[in-house]
From TrEMBL:
<feature type="compositionally biased region" description="Low complexity">
    <location>
        <begin position="1"/>
        <end position="31"/>
    </location>
</feature>
<feature type="region of interest" description="Disordered">
    <location>
        <begin position="1"/>
        <end position="86"/>
    </location>
</feature>
<dbReference type="InterPro" id="IPR002048">
    <property type="entry name" value="EF_hand_dom"/>
</dbReference>
<feature type="domain" description="EF-hand">
    <location>
        <begin position="511"/>
        <end position="546"/>
    </location>
</feature>
<dbReference type="GO" id="GO:0071618">
    <property type="term" value="F:lysophosphatidylethanolamine acyltransferase activity"/>
</dbReference>
<keyword id="KW-0808">Transferase</keyword>
<protein>
    <recommendedName>
        <fullName>EF-hand domain-containing protein</fullName>
    </recommendedName>
</protein>
<feature type="compositionally biased region" description="Basic and acidic residues">
    <location>
        <begin position="62"/>
        <end position="71"/>
    </location>
</feature>
<dbReference type="GO" id="GO:0008374">
    <property type="term" value="F:O-acyltransferase activity"/>
</dbReference>
<keyword id="KW-0012">Acyltransferase</keyword>
<keyword id="KW-0444">Lipid biosynthesis</keyword>
<dbReference type="GO" id="GO:0005509">
    <property type="term" value="F:calcium ion binding"/>
</dbReference>
<keyword id="KW-1133">Transmembrane helix</keyword>
<dbReference type="InterPro" id="IPR045252">
    <property type="entry name" value="LPCAT1-like"/>
</dbReference>
<dbReference type="GO" id="GO:0016020">
    <property type="term" value="C:membrane"/>
</dbReference>
<dbReference type="InterPro" id="IPR002123">
    <property type="entry name" value="Plipid/glycerol_acylTrfase"/>
</dbReference>
<keyword id="KW-0812">Transmembrane</keyword>
Amino acid sequence: MASTSPSPASLSTPLLSGSIAPARGANGHGNNSHRHHHPHDDSDAAASVCGDGGGDPFAFLSEDRPPRDRGASPADPFRNATPADPFRNATPAWGGGVYAWARTLLLLPVAALRLALFGLAIAIGYAATWVALRGWAHAQGRSREGTGPMPAWRRRLMWITRISARCILFSFGYHWIRKKGRPAPRELAPIVVSNHISYIEPIFFFYELFPTIVSSESHDALPFVGTIIRAMQVIYVDRFSPASRKAAVNEIKRKAACNSFPRVLLFPEGTTTNGRFLISFQHGAFIPGYPVQPVVVRYPHVHFDQSWGNISLLKLMFKMFTQFHNFMEVEYLPVVYPPEIKQENALHFAENTSYAMARALNVLPTSYSYGDSMIMARAVEAGKDNCSNYMVQMAWVKDMYGVNTAEAMELLENFLAMNPDSDGHVKAQDFWAHFGLDCSPLCKKIFHYFNSGITDSITFCQFLVGCAHLRKQPLFQGACETAFEKCRDPETSDISRGQLADVLRLSMLLPSDDGMLRLFKTFDVDGDEKISRDDFLTCLGRFPFLIAFFAAPINGEVYIEIV
C-alpha cells in the first residue's frame, strides 16, 4: 500500500513529459542557472511545458486513472448526460391552459368553504391536543429522551385530533383515499417507512396510525403543528449533527422495543420528491434492526402534480383547494426483515426496503439525496437556470469519496462565483479568473482533467467529483506536506506572497499583480498576510487541483525547454 506521507523521492514522476526534461544540480535541486532566461522566452517555454501535447498534471500523485476512466456505473454522475430531477413539480406555475383557469374560477367559492373547514379542523384539533397534553409532565416543553408512553386516556382523547386530521384531508380535496393492504401488527413490525411526496402523508398517517415520528428540530416551533406533533412523542433530530443522529437512533430503538409506544414512522428519503424516483435512504430506520413495514403513497393525476417540490406551500395549498378531487393511493407492503449478518444490517436492510418500494411504485431508485435538494435550492436562490444540472447524486459521492453535504455546499459557493452559464457550465477562462489566473497551458491541462478535454466547460458535478478524486489519492496528503516544506521560509515557517510568486514561475505561471493578490488570498485562509502550514493544507483541501502548481518543488525539479 502506498504511504500517505511519501518522501520526495516517492513523488519523482515529472509534472509533464514529452517536450521537457528535468535539469538537476548536484544536490538534487534545480540548477539556478536555468531559472534566469530572457523574458521573451517565457511564452515559448510555457508552451513547451504546458502545451496541448498531452500529459497528466496530477500524474505525480498516483497511478490511479482520473475519474472519467472509471468503469461504468449506473450511479456515476459522469454517465448522466441529462440528469434526472426527483424534486421538480411538473405543474405549470400559474397557467395550465384554459381548463385549469376555468376550473380555478369555478371552484373559488368551493375553495373558500374548504379553507373555512381547514381552519375549523385545525382549531378543534389543536384544542383537543392541548387538553390531552395538559398536566402531562412528559409533554412540558420539548419531548425528552427517556420519556414514557402516553397514557391510554390521553391517547383516546387524541382521536378528536385524528378525526380533525381526516377533515383537513377532506378540505384539501381527498374525499376518499384508496388503500391496499393493511398495517402489520405493531408487535410484528414496530417501524413503518414511507416515501415522501407531499405534506399530505404525515397528516394521513397521523389519522391512520397515530405513530411516533422522527422530525426536524425546527418543526417544534411551528404554530399549532409543534403542539400536535409533540403529542405524537416526536423524536427530534438535527440531520447535520452526528450526536443528534446517534441519539435519535437510540430513541427509535427504545420506542420500537416497547409495545406500549405506538409505531415509529420515518420517511427515510429525508425530504419530499416528485414521486417519480426514490432517492437514497437514510439508515436511521434500519440501524435498530427491527422488522420494517414499507408503505408506498401515490398521487395519480392528469393536470395537477401534488408533490411538494419546487413550489411554495401556499401555492400548493391553493391548487389543492381548487381541484374537484385529489386522488391518493396508499399501499401497505409486506414486512421486510433485517439480514441475518449483523455487520451488513443497516446498508443491506435499507437497500432491500428501497428496492421493494421501488418495485411497488414502478420507479427507479437513485443516488440522489437530501444534499442534492440543498444544492438545487442554493442554485435557485442564486437565480440560476436549469438548477437540476447542479445536482451530483450526493449519496453516491459520499459513499465513494466521503464528501459530506457541507463540503459540497462550500465548493458550490465557489462554483457559483465562477459565472456558470444558463446550463450550469463554467468555462476555463471564468474558472481560472476566480483564482486570479489566466488560462495558461498548464491551467488548461488542469481544467481538462475535470472533463477529459471533451468540452471547453465543466459542470458542478465534474468539479466536485474531480476535487474529491484528487483528495482521495494515496500520495495527495504527503504531496501537500512536501510542497509546503519545500516552499516555506526557513526562518518564519510561512510562505510570503513573493515566495508564492516564485513557485508559480517554476510552473510558467505569470499572473498579474491583481491576480497574484487574489491567489494569495485564496491560500491565506485566515487573512493574516502570510500562508501558514494550516492555511496551505486547508486551501489545498478545498481546491486540491492547485497542488499541480507545486509539482516542480515537490520533485526537486526545474523544467526547461529542450532546444
